[in-house]
Amino acid sequence: MSDALHPIRMIDVGTKPVTLRTARASARLRAAPETIRRIHAGALEKGDAIAVARLAAITAAKRTSDVVPLCHPLPLDAVEATVGFAGPDAVVIETVVRATARTGVEMEALVAASAAALAIYDMCKSIDPGMTIEQVRLEAKSGGTRGDFSRAGSPGHT
């Protein structure tokens, strides 16, 4: 295949205005109720899955340009990660990323949510290999010239 048929390029954001950019993403991990109980109780062999998931989210957001080839490396102002429970069989992760930059932080928020779910999966895989990671999605974004986005019905939308 020719590069002319499939051009790849990082977008030039040099002339875009520097503005406050915010993105919120979420992910859901489904597991057996006993696995969820153990996550909630902090009773896993590897330790506190919630704390590890939050650290994984923060680390992943800061390293997004290392794993998503066309993302710009960004100095992030803040990364927040929360882990909650939805019924007897699900963990819900929400991440919020903020930066004062020329490009958005949607990918950083999505990578953070994904990494948090993967960290929990890693900590529980020996007791529940049937877990699934579902619904990794952008919930909201603000800042920039393309306007704001908020998924209808998402909790706490901006």
Give the helices and strands, then pairings.
Blueprint: E1 19-30, H1 33-41, H2 49-62, H3 64-67, E2 78-85, E3 90-101, H4 106-124, E4 132-142, E5 149-150
Antiparallel strand pairs: 1-3, 1-4, 2-3, 4-5
Helix pairs in contact: 2-4
Written account of the structure:
With 158 residues, the protein is α+β, with helices and mostly antiparallel strands. It has helices at 33-41, 49-62, 64-67, 106-124, and strands spanning 19-30, 78-85, 90-101, 132-142, 149-150. The chain has a single domain (29-144), classed as Molybdopterin cofactor biosynthesis C (MoaC) domain (Alpha-Beta Plaits, 2-Layer Sandwich), CATH 3.30.70.640. 29% of the residues lie in helices and 28% in strands. A hairpin with a 6-residue loop joins strand 4 and strand 5. Helix 2 (49-62) runs antiparallel to helix 4 (106-124). The model has no long low-confidence stretch (mean pLDDT 92).
Brief descriptors of the model:
single chain, 158 residues, alpha+beta, Alpha-Beta Plaits, 5-stranded antiparallel sheet, 5 strands, elongated
Overall 3D geometry? elongated
Distance separating the two termini: 43 Å
Number of strands: 5
Q: In terms of structural class, how would the helical and strand content be classed?
A: alpha+beta
For this structure, the CATH topology is Alpha-Beta Plaits
Indicate the CATH architecture: 2-Layer Sandwich
| SSE pattern | EHHHEEHEE
Provide mean pLDDT, rounded.
Answer: 92
- Name the strands of the widest sheet in spatial order: 2-3-1-4-5
Strand content: 25-35%
The CATH superfamily is identified as Molybdopterin cofactor biosynthesis C (MoaC) domain
What's the CATH C level? Answer: Alpha Beta
